[in-house]
Design goal:
The complex is a heterodimer of chains A (250) and B (244). Chain A contains eleven helices and no strands. With 250 residues, chain A is mainly α. Chain A is globular and about 55 Å long. Chain B has 244 residues and is an alpha/beta fold. Chain B has nine helices and ten strands. Chain B has a six-stranded mixed β-sheet, with helices on both faces. A four-stranded antiparallel β-sheet of chain B has the order 2-1-4-5. Chain B is globular. The chains are: A mainly alpha (250), B alpha/beta (244). Chains A and B meet through α1 and α4 of A and β6 and α3 of B.
């Protein structure tokens, strides 16, 4: 294994430990979404299609990923505040290794979230057990990269006090603009268009449609995928630029 | 060979000059203290010498390698403990050491030896499984300094190592720093005059980015006519160039 890969693994392992050992992060990354999945299904599934498990479970997976942006942002901003980043910068590690170290940490967390919420969904509603569940888990890694990138960007530009507030905008955006908590039928066309050019509804649609299958490949899968990837690329480029600037202005 | 040799080292920010043409030599194995009031340019100097910040002009050689052209050669030779505690909060003491050792590319056998040494020097054995966030401020600072030693640097920079610590913790850290003396070159920045007096072989006084004095404490007394470091420091800083 090259020295660079070893360092990336070391940085990733550390980031994962920092996040999962914080009890608050477990509450928000796992506990809260899990409670919402079970309770919302039990309370609302008989009232509206919106809360059928085939829509709710993938929606919860993406919703839970929004918290990754909060906790990875918090980790980076705290590393900056406490001079831990300075320690890392003095080491032999290269700037791109830091970005990988923070970004790759989201995968084990996102995989656990995705498998857990799909499996719980499958236990509650056995119709979820299909090859679509594997597609759903796989495609949810794409949406996880978007939220991880958002976290790195937030951690690079916000301090430890403001990162929570700004991340809550992303969480609220995922909650309010994903269309998972309320039916979108009857909404104005302009608002629907607004939702479709933002990443939140597209991210949710992408995982829902990976699980449930698509009618129109472009509309139901490719379009949301392109939107999510475009936001992911933009946000990662911005994160790399901002992180690089912070490194230069220590 | 000089451990550090700077030549007209300069750092400018948008509308300020943080360090003005610094010319300084620190001998190998020496404990050199850099004194100065807030904004004197001490931390900026440390940042340039550790490769954290690029000089606007001039150069510095660390063990013969240029910070401008040979940063990759310098990185394995230096480490720093900044004034804010720099530890991984949710990692244990042992994991923090393992983490820094892995980043420094140390082999397992070397890490075991480094760990044993650090446990002996800093007394970490009883707290090695405690998470850094659960440690007192004094222990966190000790760990922060210990982590700077993991890479076995030839030149160690300690930026305000005892800032904010109580008197007992400060004295303990002095003891530790004295123990490192001679094993490596140490550059210490501090606001505490008694700290500089207790630890340094030589010291430098900076003000507004300029080095006003370099020498031993005795030379400082001789130059200023004072009999304690604090008075001598004040006289140099307030007197500026008029002292000859």
């Amino acid at each position: 294994m090259s020295e660079s890969i070893k360092r990336i693994c070391t940085l990733t392992g550390r980031s994962v430990k920092e996040i999962i050992r914080d009890p608050i992060s477990i509450v928000f990354l796992i506990g809260l979404p899990l409670a919402m999945e079970i309770l919302f299904y039990l309370i609302f599934h008989s009232m509206t299609d919106q809360f059928e498990m085939k829509y709710l479970a993938p929606g919860i997976v993406v919703f839970s990923q929004a918290f990754i942006s909060l906790f990875s942002g918090l980790l980076i901003s705290l590393d900056r505040a406490g001079s831990f980043l300075v320690r890392l910068f003095v080491s032999k590690a290269k700037p791109y290794e830091f970005i990988f170290g923070y970004a790759l940490a989201l995968f084990p967390i996102a995989i656990v979230q995705s498998i857990l919420f799909f499996v719980v969904g499958g236990i509650i509603d056995s119709s979820l057990w299909s090859v679509g569940m594997i597609y759903g888990i796989l495609i949810s890694m794409v949406t996880a990269i978007f939220f991880g990138g958002a976290g790195i960007l937030l951690g690079s530009v916000c301090n430890e006090k403001s990162v929570g507030g700004v991340a809550s905008v992303i969480i609220a955006g995922q909650s309010m603009l994903s269309g998972m908590w309320f039916p979108t039928q009857g909404m104005s066309k302009s608002f629907l268009t607004f939702m479709r050019v933002l990443p939140f509804k597209n991210a949710t649609m992408l995982v829902q449609n990976a699980l449930n299958g698509v009618n129109d490949v472009f509309d139901d899968f490719l379009f949301p995928l392109i939107i999510v990837l475009a936001y992911t690329a933009t946000i990662f480029i911005a994160a790399i630029v901002c992180f690089g600037k912070k490194m230069k202005n220590l | 060979m000089e451990a550090i040799k700077t030549t007209d080292l300069r750092k400018e920010y948008k509308d300020t000059v943080a360090v003005k043409s610094l010319n300084l030599e620190v001998h190998e194995g020496e404990l050199f203290s850099l004194l100065g009031v807030n904004g004197a340019g001490k931390t900026t100097t440390v940042k340039m010498l550790t490769g954290l910040s690029k000089p606007t002009a001039g150069d510095a050689l660390i063990c013969g390698f240029s910070v401008v052209r040979e940063l990759d050669r310098i990185k394995p030779l230096v480490d720093v403990s900044m004034q804010e505690t720099a530890v991984a909060r949710n990692l244990t003491v042992e994991e923090n050491i393992d983490f820094c050792a892995a980043l420094a590319g140390k082999s397992k056998s070397v890490v075991a030896e480094v760990k044993k040494n650090l446990y002996d020097i800093f007394g970490f054995e009883s707290i090695k499984n405690k998470r850094a966030a659960k440690l007192s401020g004094g222990w966190q600072r000790k760990l922060s300094i210990a982590l700077a030693l993991v890479s076995s640097p030839k030149v160690l920079f300690l930026d305000e190592p005892t800032l904010g610590l109580d008197v007992i913790a400060r004295r303990e850290l002095w003891k530790l720093i004295r123990g490192l003396h001679g094993e490596m070159t140490i550059v210490l920045t501090t606001h505490y005059m008694e700290e500089a007096e207790a630890l340094s072989d030589r010291l430098g006084v900076m003000k507004d980015g300029e080095l006003l004095f370099v020498g031993t404490i005795e030379q400082m007394y001789k130059k200023t006519g004072c009999s304690n470091v604090e008075d001598a420091f004040v006289k140099i800083v307030e007197g500026g160039d008029s002292l000859e």
